[in-house]
């Protein structure tokens, strides 16, 4: 007798077959035949003898990582880690679960995606949904007002994940945040520079980083849209249909010059908070120019981020190419072309720490999170990943070229050979 | 008005004061006065205005790690990781939660300590209790019969933790396991060698590794204790009281010679499974002698390990010294002398993978887990931990001396300086 896992797999395959026939509008006879096979399979599960009833699987939306996948993860994390450390960040760790009330009221609508722990007669707990809220709780609890910290750890969301796109219910976030009082936009620009550096170094194809400001969005939504519509039709000669798309602003993309133009815009300039946002975007782009990252960073008024806690600048990094998912989970075993899309995001959240402080004292914060997803291109590129067996390695990547440095890495060398080995290496150079 | 967290702290301090006075049998007046203060504090909590009601804390039995503590953790993990890799292990990762039924029936009485997730309308899930059961599930699911794997990750137990001893509800385990068919006791001996190497390299004080065999324990419990008692009194001249301590065998400690002696023991030799265990212990010690680790490994018949899944050799590593816990959590703020005790453990579990396999196919496995606890001695020893700013480091530790190698590690060097730097280093050497 076939085992339960095999039968369940057969049921899934058979179910797919039935659905396919129905969508193809196959003959009733044909469909009935396949449905009957499906029912037979389902009956088999019911007739099981009670032995070895285990369904051998991981929880929905989660996965194991085998040694090869772990080697890739290590490589990716080392790149990210190297960037975070280069920017002078320290790391902290927080528990995987928090008091439920710590997470309450921080995520808006997304709160329904939080995993709760069962009430087993103690505190009410939830799995962390991101690393930002635990970070704010940590700052408030330890009365820290100034820190550059990174945190690479798993977070949990009861989402309906598209696993073929690398989305899971358990996934890693790599967070970098700057807390403390600084001149306006300096830490914000550093966070964008970090996203730029990491996406460049990971070498996962071309990317763009969209930037917007929460206050510009809020300002836009507060506008008297009837008047905006009238202006669009009468003054700018747009058709009424186009004008009805109140998201007209939202199609705007640009850089510093767009922020300047919008500051002159009659409607936009009526909103104090939109002006504050636009002024900050202008200042931000002046720093981004100094950092030489404006080739990939774009001011995009359509960018919105769901979480409640953002108060200023928001940003998101996107891969612009579609990749081939080597392990796309379709039943035919064929490869699927998938779009990975957003891979990093963040923004300014000046109010979050204050929500935890008994006296409401605010600690201004800004940060980026990089999502770790299964990446098809890297998967095929990095077949080796471990530096075993190679006694002395000089690493000369894009970043090292930029910085004018060479990374020198050495493995175990026998003591007797040490001097000779280094001398030989240096004389060869 | 003081905030809630401050008041709750004050309530705890005041509660302690009251208990102290009661235990000291202080005067009724004195106790009444302090009780009234306590009630006032409790009333304050009730009168709170509903604003900022957050209790700023981590979940019971969990803690944050600050950057200094993280640097120590990194140092410790690098040592452990280095040992695992030296022994040729690969790493895997599994989700933090499993289907509840995956954990069912694996931990005996300890099952009550498993954290369950709330039923939010999907699968029933539990947080992993160890890394061994998920590993067995992984092997069965992927039909892997041969692997040396390590896994460093957090596990969860709803224990009443003694946090001053470094015990928490969320803690790291560093697991190394060998799955597959090998000549008897070869992988078991390697696991013990790894515990020996790690405890030596971590330099956390003297240690012992106790070894026993599940079958010897089972054999002992199956013995006719009345006869054993009679024999002890009549033949060995022991007092009746001593003989009544049926745990007489259990006080025995030794090495290979003890296993040999017990194989001759009339009672012990009647149990087939005890004999099998003793024969394996003998063979194990012959390998341990070759590995030169018998100075710290002791055959100890008192050693028992709680988990249901062990089938053969079991072992546990203990620190023999008491340390000073720098952050002992007593109210006076004074340091406390604490015993860390068991820091590593493991054994052979030949039946576990078969419990997941629909056909019950067994995969013999053996492995060690090293518990990561806050370690007082390391805490004071490692104040720097990061190798930043030092361009070229030669590491010559105990292990490197033993292996006759030097670990050479280099940081970023400017390209222009590369040749000069290495030449300078080598000419100095």
Automatic annotation (TrEMBL), chains A, B:
<keyword id="KW-0067">ATP-binding</keyword>
<feature type="domain" description="WHEP-TRS">
    <location>
        <begin position="3"/>
        <end position="59"/>
    </location>
</feature>
<comment type="similarity">
    <text>Belongs to the class-II aminoacyl-tRNA synthetase family.</text>
</comment>
<dbReference type="Pfam" id="PF13393">
    <property type="entry name" value="tRNA-synt_His"/>
</dbReference>
<dbReference type="GO" id="GO:0005524">
    <property type="term" value="F:ATP binding"/>
</dbReference>
<dbReference type="InterPro" id="IPR006195">
    <property type="entry name" value="aa-tRNA-synth_II"/>
</dbReference>
<dbReference type="InterPro" id="IPR041715">
    <property type="entry name" value="HisRS-like_core"/>
</dbReference>
<dbReference type="GO" id="GO:0005829">
    <property type="term" value="C:cytosol"/>
</dbReference>
<keyword id="KW-0030">Aminoacyl-tRNA synthetase</keyword>
<dbReference type="GO" id="GO:0005739">
    <property type="term" value="C:mitochondrion"/>
</dbReference>
<dbReference type="GO" id="GO:0032543">
    <property type="term" value="P:mitochondrial translation"/>
</dbReference>
<dbReference type="InterPro" id="IPR004516">
    <property type="entry name" value="HisRS/HisZ"/>
</dbReference>
<dbReference type="GO" id="GO:0004821">
    <property type="term" value="F:histidine-tRNA ligase activity"/>
</dbReference>
<dbReference type="GO" id="GO:0006427">
    <property type="term" value="P:histidyl-tRNA aminoacylation"/>
</dbReference>
<dbReference type="InterPro" id="IPR000738">
    <property type="entry name" value="WHEP-TRS_dom"/>
</dbReference>
<dbReference type="GO" id="GO:0003723">
    <property type="term" value="F:RNA binding"/>
</dbReference>
<dbReference type="GO" id="GO:0042802">
    <property type="term" value="F:identical protein binding"/>
</dbReference>
<feature type="domain" description="Aminoacyl-transfer RNA synthetases class-II family profile">
    <location>
        <begin position="32"/>
        <end position="429"/>
    </location>
</feature>
<keyword id="KW-0648">Protein biosynthesis</keyword>
<dbReference type="InterPro" id="IPR045864">
    <property type="entry name" value="aa-tRNA-synth_II/BPL/LPL"/>
</dbReference>
<dbReference type="InterPro" id="IPR009068">
    <property type="entry name" value="uS15_NS1_RNA-bd_sf"/>
</dbReference>
<dbReference type="Pfam" id="PF00458">
    <property type="entry name" value="WHEP-TRS"/>
</dbReference>
<keyword id="KW-0436">Ligase</keyword>
<protein>
    <recommendedName>
        <fullName>histidine--tRNA ligase</fullName>
        <ecNumber>6.1.1.21</ecNumber>
    </recommendedName>
</protein>
<keyword id="KW-0547">Nucleotide-binding</keyword>
């Amino acid at each position: 007798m076939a085992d339960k896992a095999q039968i369940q797999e057969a049921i899934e395959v058979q179910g797919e077959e039935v659905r396919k026939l129905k969508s193809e509008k196959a003959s009733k006879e044909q469909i009935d035949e396949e449905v009957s096979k499906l029912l037979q399979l389902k009956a088999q599960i019911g007739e099981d003898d009670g032995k070895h009833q285990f369904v051998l699987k991981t929880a929905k939306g989660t996965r194991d990582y085998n040694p090869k996948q772990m080697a890739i993860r290590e490589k990716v994390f080392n790149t990210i880690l190297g960037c975070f450390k280069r920017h002078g960040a320290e790391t902290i760790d927080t528990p995987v679960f928090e008091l439920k009330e710590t997470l309450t009221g921080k995520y808006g609508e997304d709160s329904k995606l939080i995993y709760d722990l069962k009430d087993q007669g103690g505190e009410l707990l939830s799995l962390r949904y991101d690393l930002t809220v635990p970070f704010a709780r940590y700052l408030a609890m330890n009365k820290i007002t100034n820190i550059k910290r990174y945190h690479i750890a798993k977070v949990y969301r009861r989402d309906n994940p598209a696993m073929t796109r690398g989305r899971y219910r358990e996934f890693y976030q790599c967070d970098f945040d700057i807390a403390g009082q600084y001149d306006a936009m300096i830490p914000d620009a550093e966070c964008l520079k970090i996203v730029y550096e990491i996406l460049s170094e990971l070498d996962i194809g071309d990317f763009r980083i969209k930037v917007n400001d929460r206050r510009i969005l809020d300002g836009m939504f507060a506008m008297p849209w009837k008047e905006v519509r009238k202006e669009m039709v009468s003054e700018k000669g747009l058709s009424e249909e186009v004008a009805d798309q109140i998201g007209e602003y939202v199609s705007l993309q640009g850089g510093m010059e767009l922020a300047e133009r919008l500051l002159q815009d009659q409607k936009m300039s009526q909103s104090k908070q939109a002006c504050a946002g636009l002024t900050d975007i202008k200042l931000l782009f002046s720093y981004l120019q100094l950092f030489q990252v404006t080739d990939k960073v774009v001011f995009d008024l359509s960018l919105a981020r769901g979480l409640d806690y953002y108060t200023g600048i928001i940003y998101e990094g996107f891969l612009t190419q579609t990749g081939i998912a080597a392990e796309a989970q379709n039943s035919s075993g064929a490869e699927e072309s998938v779009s990975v899309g957003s891979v990093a995001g963040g923004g300014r959240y000046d109010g979050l720490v204050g929500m935890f402080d008994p006296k409401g004292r605010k600690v201004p914060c800004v940060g980026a999170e990089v999502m770790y997803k299964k990446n098809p291109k890297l998967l095929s590129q990095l077949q080796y990943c471990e530096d075993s067996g190679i006694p002395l390695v000089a690493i000369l990547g894009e970043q090292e070229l930029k910085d004018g440095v060479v990374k020198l890495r050495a493995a175990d060398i026998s003591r007797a050979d040490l001097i000779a080995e280094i001398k030989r290496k240096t004389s060869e150079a």
